[in-house]
Write a structure and sequence with these properties.
Shape: globular
Radius of gyration: 18 Å
Structural class: mainly alpha
Keywords: Cell membrane, Membrane, Transmembrane, Transmembrane helix
Main location: membrane
Membrane topology: Multi-pass membrane protein
Family: Belongs to the UPF0126 family.
Organism: Sneathiella litorea
Length: 210
C-alpha cells in the first residue's frame, strides 16, 4: 500500500513541477518544444540527480510514464496557459506543493535505497530543489532557491520531519509523509505570504591584526 502511495506521490509531484516549468515557458513565450523541455527539466531534474548520486536506475528511464506526464502537461499548458489568470501566483503555489512533496519522496527513496538518515534528508532536499533551480536558470529567471524568503529550508524541514518520524515513532509511513508535507508546505506558504526569511550574513570589515 505504501509503495503505491509513493508512486502516486511521485507522479503527482512530477506533474506539479512539470506544470511550473510549463508556466515559466508560457511567461517566456516559448514554442511547444520549449514547453516540453521546461516541463521535463523541472519535473524530473531533481529525481534524476538523486538517482545518479545513489547509483540506482534513473526512475524515468525505468518507468517512462514520468516522461509522458511531463510532455502531456507541457502540451496542455501550451494551449491553455493563456486562460490561467495570474500565472506567476499559480507558479509559486504549485512550486510550493511540489517542493514539500518531492522532499519527502526523495528522502523515502534515498532511505529505502540504503542511504543513512542524514544522507536521505540531504537527497530529499536535492530532489525537491534541483528541478526548480534548473527551470529558473534555463529560463533566465531569478532562481527561487536564491531569493531571500525561505525555500530550500522548507524542503529540508519536510525531509527531516519525515525521516525522524518514520525512524523514531510507530506512525504509519503514509501518515508521516502527509504530516511532513503539510509542515513543509506551511513553512513555504508562510514565506510566500509573510516574507519569512532566515538571518542573513552582513558584510563587515575584517579585523586588523597589526
Amino acid at each position: 500500500m505504501f509503495s503505491d502511495f509513493v508512486t502516486i506521490l511521485d507522479l503527482v509531484g512530477v506533474a506539479v513541477f512539470a506544470a511550473t516549468g510549463s508556466l515559466v515557458a508560457s511567461r517566456k513565450e516559448m514554442d511547444l518544444i520549449g514547453f516540453g523541455m521546461m516541463a521535463t527539466f523541472t519535473g524530473i531534474g531533481g529525481g534524476t540527480l538523486r538517482d545518479v548520486i545513489l547509483d540506482r536506475p534513473v526512475f524515468w528511464i525505468a518507468d517512462q510514464r514520468y516522461l509522458l506526464v511531463c510532455l502531456t502537461i507541457a502540451v496542455l499548458l501550451f494551449f491553455f496557459a493563456s486562460h490561467v489568470q495570474k500565472r506567476y501566483v499559480v507558479l509559486i503555489w504549485s512550486d510550493a506543493i511540489g517542493l514539500a512533496a518531492f522532499a519527502v519522496l526523495g528522502a523515502e527513496i534515498a532511505q529505502s535505497s540504503g542511504a543513512s538518515p542524514m544522507v536521505a534528508i540531504v537527497l530529499g532536499m536535492i530532489t525537491a530543489t534541483f528541478g526548480g533551480l534548473a527551470r529558473d536558470l534555463v529560463a533566465g529567471e531569478p532562481p527561487l532557491l536564491l531569493k531571500q524568503e525561505i525555500y530550500a529550508t522548507a524542503a529540508l524541514v519536510s525531509a527531516t520531519v519525515y525521516i525522524i518520524t518514520v525512524d523514531n515513532t510507530d506512525i504509519a509511513p503514509i501518515l508521516a509523509a502527509c504530516i511532513a508535507i503539510g509542515i513543509g508546505f506551511s513553512i513555504r506558504a508562510g514565506a510566500i505570504l509573510f516574507r519569512w526569511t532566515l538571518p542573513r550574513y552582513r558584510q563587515r570589515a575584517g579585523r586588523n591584526y597589526k
